[in-house]
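Sanity check. The docking grid for iron/sulfur cluster depends on where the pocket ends up, so I'm generating a full predicted complex first rather than guessing from homology. Inputs follow.
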Amino acid sequence: MSKYNKTDRQPVEAAYIHVPFCRQKCGYCDFISLAGAEHLMTDWHRALKNEIEAAWRQAEKESYSAKLKTIYFGGGTPSLLSPKQVAEIIDLLNNRFGLAEDCEITLETNPATLGAGDYLLMRQSGVNRLSLGMQAAQDRLLKKLGRIHTVQDSITAIKQAEAAGFERISTDMIIGLPDQTVQDVSETLDLILSLPVEHVSYYSLILEEGTPFYRCYIDHPELLPDEDAEREMYHLIIDRLNQAGFVNYEISNAARPGGESRHNLVYWQAKQYYGFGPAAHSYIGNVRRGNTEDVKNYIQAWSASDNGYTVSHIDEVLDNDDMQREMMMLGLRLLEGVSRAGFAERYGSDPLDVFTNEISVLQKQGLIQVDDDLIHLTDRGLDFANIVFREFV
Ligand code: SF4
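Predicted complex below; grid placement will be based on this.
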């Protein structure tokens, strides 16, 4: 019997597109992106369109094709694409899968890459949400990170995007940086809150093996803010954003009501999605599949044939237990938590029965709480979320 379970296939309503190009590599980044390889973009674009066509044919054949509710251009630096290239991809997705009327289409944008006129063209291409990588409001920190933009670039970008009609703008900030103080974080928040932003993502620096930051700091933790300072930064962000009317709906994300990232909710709610482009992952049925991380290999495979799946690999075939654990792990990232009724609708059992021991241990530690239908992190659980997630691995 096949280990792939077609009965687990829900309609797939989300698509992620990986754009593997950057102007230069930031010192902390281990995402799959090439610096100085913009000459490959046209070939990447052609290959990507072939991959989308093939995925659509497969979805039609196996009856999980549905109108898309979210599209997310991530990277890399998707704002290096021309508005015409972006429009062609959106048009293709629309012509094949169809787009829901209020489809959320996000473009990750580096503040130094688009000019005033480009925002209008991007808006006209169908993009309706920008995720802007501001990261910090101090040029000395941006320089240290190896970012190609300045603080003024972020301010200009957000104002130009607003003038071009973007009502949905998100921004990223990083905490735990070398030389970063709590005062720096406070000033970054001052700037963000003075701008027309509806969503903020706040991440802690992670030293990823193989990066210049790893080599510099792995043996010198004294050069980074200590755990207490980082926790102070994290709570400062949540408190300040809450005071300003944002709701921290996920452990690293806050939004004004209605401004949540619908695309990222697909991941946290353990729903299914397509992943197009090098290094992109898809989750369809009970199968998680990853594309090759080698950009040239990807281009060659998808240009030479209309079936480049030879350069993708199956990462994981999830059984029922895996999927239930994943729903708990991802769902507990959301401050609202996991709905017992939603879980039961998907898996036919109450999570309190499936994970009796795990939930009881975490309740005793004061890390999670059960309120009628919802199982969610406590305030203490927010600080020790990794302990909670580990319980469901
Ligand atoms: S711009 Fe983003 S993807 Fe590109 S190197 Fe910097 S952090 Fe990585």
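Relevant for the grid: The two ends are 27 Å apart (CA to CA).
Also worth noting: The first strand starts at residue 12 and ends at 19.
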